[in-house]
Amino acid sequence: MKVLIVTEVIAGRGHYKAAESIAKSIKDQYPTHEVKIVNILSIVSKRIERIVQAIYLSMITKRPQLWGWIYKKETRLSFLFKELLADLIRWKLEKFILDEVPQVVIATHASGLGALSKIKEKHHFLLGAVFTDYHLNSFWIHSNIDYYCVGHESLKEKLITNYQIDPEKIYVTGIPIDPIFAKSHQRQQVNKRNSEKGEKDSFRILVMGGGLGFGGIKEIIGALNQIKEIPISVTIITGTNQHLFDDITKMKSTLNYQIQLLQYTEEVYLIMKNNDVLITKPGGMTVSEALTVPIPILIYKPIPGQEEHNANFLVKNHSAIRINHIEYIPYWIKYLYHHPNLLTKLKNHQAHIAKPSSALFISSLFLKNEVRDENMQKMIQK
């Protein structure tokens, strides 16, 4: 069997990581299947992809509120541009599909779904849409999609109520994260307690900003430097942002706490397991991983649009604390240090909405498409 996973990297690595997680799960279960991950816009035009990415990155770094406004207008924009976008890329994408002849096509980004839906009218393949945020928008909704995979039960209800999608097509799979998150690992203690002297470990803080290193990381580092009353150590992941990595390297000597500085890494699971709290912008992949570990989340500087919705979802489900002003970060770190019961409560709420076996669920759904919701839910709980 040939499986094609279509995605995009214009907005960071989240959508691509979701595709990788599904691909890894498929290969683990079905080693003889052929799995290919492709970027939709690269197929159409690498030049267009570079232009779109440059516009997007410029907008979210320099005019984030404009991006938020555009996102809020997505229903109207979808009505105006969804069909146009599908027609623009359909001819190139159809040729690619004809050359590849996949039996299953899975999309972790909405950009190609309209074209794929139209192509499916003439060419037979199973088509699925995998949401990578805790929010829905109209660009994902098309007539010929066989399965919708969503991160939470509330999103299934919205698909049914707001878009009249057949419930039989909707699966609450969770956002697909690396299968390693489903495996049981013992917490590795980086700092051990010195019981004889009555000394405590440092409070271990992980700071992340997604694959692109956004989210006000330098501001967070400065705010943590204001903490004098409790011992802290900080791990910072800058992703692919080399400029940020270089800037923080220069700052290290000015900080009054221990720091571990990392660039893009595939060891996120172990790093999360070895920290007490996570400060991050709420990208869909990052928070889904954190929910599974679990590690309490302090949300700071979400990108307007989908990440605002992710933040609202987490706060509503008592699984994160939203920080709107940088000066509140020291307060919350000290409060959590002195109130471990709140850390425990956050972890308990996270466990209720975590979907550690999401990638396994999705790969099994598409490759054994006769399996229904009840059986899949049992699989997730194992």
From TrEMBL:
GO molecular function annotation: hexosyltransferase activity
Localization (cell)? Membrane
Specify whether Glycosyltransferase is a keyword of the entry.
yes
| Domain Glycosyl transferase family 28 C-terminal span(s) in chain numbering | 205-331
> Which BP terms does GO give this entry?
glycolipid biosynthetic process
Q: Name one GO cellular component term.
A: membrane
Domain called Diacylglycerol glucosyltransferase N-terminal: residue spans: 15-177
What stretches pass through the bilayer?
none
Question: What does the UniProt keyword field contain?
Answer: Glycosyltransferase, Transferase
Query: Belongs to which family?
Result: Belongs to the glycosyltransferase 28 family.
PANTHER family hit by this protein: MONOGALACTOSYLDIACYLGLYCEROL SYNTHASE, MONOGALACTOSYLDIACYLGLYCEROL SYNTHASE 1, CHLOROPLASTIC
UniProt protein name: Galactosyldiacylglycerol synthase
